[in-house]
């Protein structure tokens, strides 16, 4: 039992700062997308390794390996993009993952500065190019949760910003729907 407790503490202690920062993350999101869309928010930590984190309405679930700050932000972001407003079909899941990933990068810019943001974007873009990652719309179910929907989805949003005014990002119908939830 002591070994199990020690193992869990070792895995989860690095996650403590990220969990502590959830109120600041919520403030960051609220300023951009309106009030938190639900009445409660919680985090569940499973005693087994999962290899994934899962966002369900009002609850993010992590395995025994814990998560870093970027993952904690990403799952919380899904309360707005994914849980408050959901795509009509799973083929559009890149809207969930692209928005969550892009704003996860913006949180990194907020906390670590613009050079960190630029490095993350450049690394993501280089990975997409070197692996010849396909379009954001998955052609089959196995492609739903891949770099195509996450990193390429985020880069797609970034591209839209580059070709328009930054504030026009909010004119994307999906974002407008989310804003109407205020
Ligand atoms: Zn996600």
Can you tell me about this structure?
- The chain has 182 residues and is mainly α.
- The protein has one domain (2-179): Neutral Protease Domain 2 (Neutral Protease, domain 2, Orthogonal Bundle), CATH 1.10.390.10.
- Helices cover 52% and strands 7% of the residues.
- It has a 3-stranded mixed sheet with strand order 1-3-2, covered by helices on one side.
- Helix 1 packs across helix 3 (69-77) and helix 3 (69-77) packs across helix 4 (94-112).
- The structure holds zinc ion (ZN).
- Zinc ion is lined by residues 74, 78, 97, 100.
Helix and strand arrangement:
Elements: H1 2-20, H2 22-33, E1 42-45, E2 53-56, E3 59-62, H3 69-77, H4 94-112, H5 114-130, H6 151-162, H7 173-179
Parallel strand pairs: 1-3
Antiparallel strand pairs: 2-3
Bound molecules: zinc ion (ZN).
